[in-house]
Design a protein that fits this description.
Acyl-CoA_DH_C, Butyryl-CoA Dehydrogenase, subunit A, domain 2, globular, 7-stranded mixed sheet, alpha+beta, Butyryl-Coa Dehydrogenase, subunit A, domain 1, AcylCoA_DH/oxidase_NM_dom_sf
Length: 426
C-alpha cells in the first residue's frame, strides 16, 4: 500500500489477539464471537465511516476473532461450520458496521471458491494455505467489466486487464482473479498473492456508502499463476475438468454470494432499527402539537406503530434468510462430496429461495433504513449521530444488480415454474 493512502492502525485492536486466541467450538459460540466483534466495531462506527480510511485495523480485528475461519475444515484450524452459521456471523457483524460485514461475507465466499470449482487437491491446498496463515481474501471478479485476459506461458497462466471494482483487495493477503483464456471461452479462477508489482489498486473508492470496503478499481499487469492453481482445470492437459466445471454444482457460487449480500443487507437493517431505538429513547422529543400530546416520544402512537411495523418485517426477513441459509447448507452437505449428483432442478430451487431473500431484504432494508428518521427526528440527521450510514450502506450495495430482475425471475417461477438459467448474477 502506498504510504500516502490513509489507513486505520491495526495496533488499536492488538489486545484482542490474546483475548480471542481460542476459537469458538459451537454454532452458538461462533455467533457470540460475531456479536463481540460487532460490539467493538459499534463503538466508533460513525467516526470510522466519516474518516473513510483503508480498513487495515478492522481486517486485523476479524483475523483476531477467528471469524475468517468459521467455514474452514477443523484439520487445518477452522471452525467447520455450515454456511447457515457463516451467513449469521455476517449478519451480526453488519449490524454494527455494514462495510466490515460485507468484507467478511466476500472473504467467506472467495476463501471457499475451490469447494465449488476446484479439484479435490486444490480444495485441500487452498484451505490449508488460507486457514493456517489466517489470510484475508479479496476478489477482482466484477463480471460487468470485460473479463481479464489470460494467456498461457508454459506451466503458468498470465492475467492482464483491469476491473472498475474489486472488493477488499487493498487490505487482502490473497486476491481471487478471474478471466478468459485466450483463444477459448473458458473462464479460470485463481488465487494469487495480493502484494506484488502487477496488482495496482486505484484507491478510488469514494462512494456514499460501504466506505470501508476498498471496492475501487484495480489494474492487473502480467500477474502469473501456475496452471496447478487454475481452479477446476487439469494442469497436464491445460483443459477444464468437465466433471467439475460443466455440472450444476459449479454454478453455486452465484446463489451463495447473493445470499451473502442479503445477510449483510439484513444486518444493516436490523442495526439501523436497534441504533434508532436507542436514539429515540435517549433524545427524541414528543411532538407537542398533535392534539393527543404525550410526555415522551416512546408513548407516541405513530412512533410505536412504526417501530412495531419495521420490527415485524425485519423478523420475517430474518426467518426467510435463515430458511434459505439452511437450504444452502443442505445442498453443500448433501452434494459436496458428490458434486455431479446435484441436478439443475435442485440448484434452481435453491436459487429461487435465495432470490426471494434478495427481494425481501432489499425492500425491507431500504424501507427501514430510510424510515427510521421519521421516528428519531430532525436532530438525528446530524453527521455526528451517524444514523445515515445505514441507509447509505444498503442503498449503495442494493444497486449491485437490479432487484427488478430478481422480481421478474420470481414471477416466471411462480407463474410458469421456470428455473433461472445460471448466470453471473443468478
Amino acid at each position: 500500500m502506498a504510504s500516502s493512502i490513509p489507513a486505520t492502525d491495526p495496533a488499536v485492536y492488538a489486545s484482542y489477539q490474546a483475548k480471542w486466541a481460542a476459537l469458538p467450538d459451537t454454532a452458538d459460540a461462533w455467533l457470540a464471537r460475531a456479536r463481540e466483534v460487532a460490539d467493538v466495531l459499534a463503538q466508533d462506527a460513525a467516526q470510522r465511516d466519516q474518516e473513510n480510511k483503508s480498513p487495515r485495523a478492522e481486517v486485523a480485528l476479524l483475523k483476531h476473532s477467528g471469524l475468517l475461519k468459521v467455514l474452514g475444515p477443523k484439520k487445518y484450524g477452522g471452525g467447520e461450520q455450515p454456511w447457515s452459521v457463516g451467513y449469521q456471523t455476517i449478519r451480526e457483524v453488519a449490524k454494527a458496521d455494514g462495510s466490515i460485514g460485507m468484507l467478511l461475507g466476500y472473504h467467506l465466499l472467495w476463501s471457499t471458491t475451490a469447494n465449488v470449482v476446484g479439484t479435490p487437491e486444490q480444495i485441500e491446498r487452498t484451505h490449508e494455505t488460507i486457514i493456517k496463515n489466517n489470510y484475508f481474501v479479496g476478489g477482482a471478479v466484477n463480471p460487468r467489466d470485460s473479463d481479464l485476459k489470460i494467456t498461457a506461458e508454459g506451466d503458468h497462466i498470465v492475467f492482464n486487464g483491469q476491473k472498475f471494482f474489486n472488493t477488499g483487495g487493498v487490505v487482502s493477503d490473497l486476491t481471487v482473479l478471474e478471466g478468459v483464456l485466450e483463444g477459448t471461452d473458458g473462464h479460470i479462477f485463481a488465487l494469487v498473492p495480493t502484494v506484488q508489482p502487477g496488482i495496482k489498486f486505484a484507491h478510488n473508492w469514494h462512494n456514499i456508502g460501504l466506505r470501508l470496503t476498498e471496492s475501487g478499481g484495480v489494474k492487473i499487469e502480467n500477474v502469473r499463476a501456475p496452471w496447478s492453481d487454475a481452479l477446476g482445470w487439469d494442469p497436464s492437459t491445460k483443459k477444464p475438468r468437465d466433471d467439475i466445471l460443466q455440472i450444476p454444482f459449479a454454478s453455486l457460487l452465484l446463489p451463495t454470494i447473493q445470499l451473502v449480500f442479503s445477510n449483510f443487507y439484513l444486518g444493516i437493517g436490523i442495526g439501523a432499527l436497534e441504533f434508532a431505538a436507542k436514539y429515540t429513547k435517549q433524545h427524541t422529543r414528543a411532538w407537542p402539537f398533535g392534539g393527543d400530546n404525550k410526555d415522551s416520544a416512546t408513548e407516541e402512537f405513530y412512533v410505536l406503530e412504526r417501530y412495531g411495523n419495521f420490527f415485524a418485517h425485519l423478523r420475517a426477513a430474518e426467518a426467510l434468510a435463515d430458511r434459505a441459509g439452511e437450504k444452502a447448507s443442505e445442498v453443500y452437505n448433501q452434494y459436496g462430496a458428490n458434486r455431479a449428483a446435484l441436478t439443475a432442478e435442485a440448484r434452481g430451487e435453491l436459487a429461487e429461495w435465495v432470490a426471494s431473500v434478495k427481494v425481501v431484504t432489499t425492500d425491507t432494508g431500504l424501507r427501514v433504513t430510510s424510515g427510521v428518521f421519521e421516528v428519531t427526528g430532525a436532530r438525528a440527521t446530524s453527521l455526528k449521530v451517524g444514523l445515515d450510514r445505514f441507509w447509505r450502506d444498503i442503498r449503495t450495495h442494493t444497486l449491485h444488480d437490479p432487484v427488478a430482475y430478481k422480481n421478474r425471475e420470481q414471477g416466471r417461477y411462480a407463474l410458469l415454474h421456470e428455473y433461472p438459467a445460471p448466470s453471473w448474477y443468478t
